[in-house]
Amino acid sequence: MKKYFTLLFLPLAATLLFSCSPPTATSECDRLYQERNGEVIYYGDKTNDLIIHLTSEPPNLHPTSRSHANRDIIVGNTHMALAVVGSEGELVPELAEAPPEVSADGLTYTYRIHPAAKWQDGRPITARDVLFSYKVAVYKHTEAPAAGTYNYFLKDIVLDEADERKLSLVMAEKYILNPYITSNNSVLDQAFFDPEKKLDAYTFTEMKEPEGAAAQDQALIEWAAGYTSAKYGTDLAFLKGGAGPYEVVEWEQGQHVVLQRKRPFWSDALNDERYQYYPERMMFKFIPDDQSAALQIKQQAIDVSTQLSTAAFEDLENSEEAQCHYRLIKTDRFSIAAILLNNRPDGIAHPRIFDDKRVRQAVGLALPVKEMIRTYFDSSTKVVNSPVSRFHRDYNTQLPDYEYDPQAAARLLDEAGWVDSDQDGIRDKLIEGKQQPLSFKLSFSNSQQAVSDMVDRIGIELKKIGVACVPDPQRGISGLLMEKNYDAVLTALSMSSVPYDFHQLWHSSNWPSASNFTGYSNPRVDELSELARRELDPEKRKLMVDEIQEIIYEDRPALFLFNPTAKIAIHKRFSNAEVFHERPYLNFSSLKVVKANSQ
């Protein structure tokens, strides 16, 4: 699934000469990589096979689980949607032959699937496959992450009786993300996933009903149990049924996943750059250790990494070998680093600490965020004061930076009744008849040393004001967030170029069963987020989202820290090495090797 965003980087960082044979060169680097008409001409022996570094292995490659960021990166090459989102928020056709026709009331989006689009056995990809895919997404027992949004906003899907490739998606009401709901769903091969066509027994609206006949149908429940079983996420024989140009051919647990280009593929004969997929094989190597990843890049054992730590990137910047063979790029990201705080702890497994705004504010005041950025990251990393990336159009640019003031933090804790009554260096408070120490676990993914070091530093700073912060390293933190099973979690909040919907993470109705991970609740934020998600006038909406951010800035349901930059290494033999703000920051399938002997 290709993405199309604002391009940030193109040039090859070497002196480039133009000729049909290797020119006299002053270095090996000049000899190997030449540029002609915007393409790199490569004089070496490496192929267009691509080896990509990922810091962690996804638990599965299920087509609709969306349980892991790296799962999304890999599956994005084996599946396709009707359209993808462009750099200005526009819809760029993928399986569709053109952007959707939108009705006058803005509620109906009509697509026609590209006439060349076929499954690998030659059957046409039809509107019925799209309908099936959305049925899967909304059905109660498939537990798809997007089900809530689709159920609420997607009213119906209507097929065109005269054209098997044409369909209309009918929205229930105006919503800022309606265009993306019509595009953000992988199209599945019904013949592979539902050969008996069991889902055909119910309409789309019937499949949506959480307590309706479809939800009670034992045959469908059994089908859903099979569909959500491990085999569709880990068994090579069942990692199929996608419309993308690649298929999984190898998975060595803990080591790598290999994708092979489908040959033939339906877009091969199209003279359209959007449908060109150049690498024949893509290997995703799982390397959590920073130093190991940097070493393999120096050895040219990895072609691309978009997940380098600051330390690894700086190591490569100081390496002559890496500078010779790689483009080293930094780009701002549509994501922020934040410490999510449990605003509704149960008082049993998780102490009642962050249900008090004063405590949340105090912890934030005690952290020297700017100094920590300089120590553990780099000067390109910017502080952020909102749940929105400062590079996003919805960011409130009027918010001042949070202050560093440990004295004010101590006063707030005194005011909130947290004092060191037993003189052990940690504040405490009598809560429901029990003396509660001001101690909490800070959970984090331990995949990068800089993150572990920063967590240790946070503990040191908080100890100065009588707060015990206990590091809690985890292999993954998504489960803790979904179950709300944490005191505090250091994580990245990712977003895209589409309008930011505050309702999803910050509306009180989305706790505990949905995506309000902190349990934050503010009536005014609830009201404004309801209005803003339906306001299509950009100027009116901007006033609303700015006010939401002002309130969240004061309430501090989470500690918003900084906008990280993506550190990227790309082997210089590849042309089309454009990067963008949104993960995975690069179109892997667009990377192209032009050999000198092919000229």
Describe the protein in words.
This protein is of the alpha+beta class and 599 residues long. The chain folds into 3 domains: 28-56 and 238-333 and 565-598, D-Maltodextrin-Binding Protein, domain 2; 79-219, Dipeptide-binding Protein, Domain 1 (Dipeptide-binding Protein, domain 1, Alpha-Beta Complex); 335-563, Dipeptide-binding Protein, domain 3. Helices cover 28% and strands 21% of the residues. A 7-stranded mixed β-sheet has the order 10-11-12-3-13-23-14. A hairpin with a 5-residue loop joins strand 6 and strand 7. Helix 11 packs parallel to helix 12, helix 14 (357-365) runs antiparallel to helix 16 and helix 20 (523-532) runs antiparallel to helix 21. The protein is globular.
Annotation keywords:
single chain; 599 residues; alpha+beta; D-Maltodextrin-Binding Protein, domain 2; Dipeptide-binding Protein, domain 1; Dipeptide-binding Protein, domain 3; 3 domains; 7-stranded mixed β-sheet; 6-stranded mixed β-sheet; 21 helices; globular
Short description:
The protein has 599 residues and is of the alpha+beta class. Strands 10-11-12-3-13-23-14 form a seven-stranded mixed beta sheet. A six-stranded mixed beta sheet has the order 16-22-15-21-19-20.
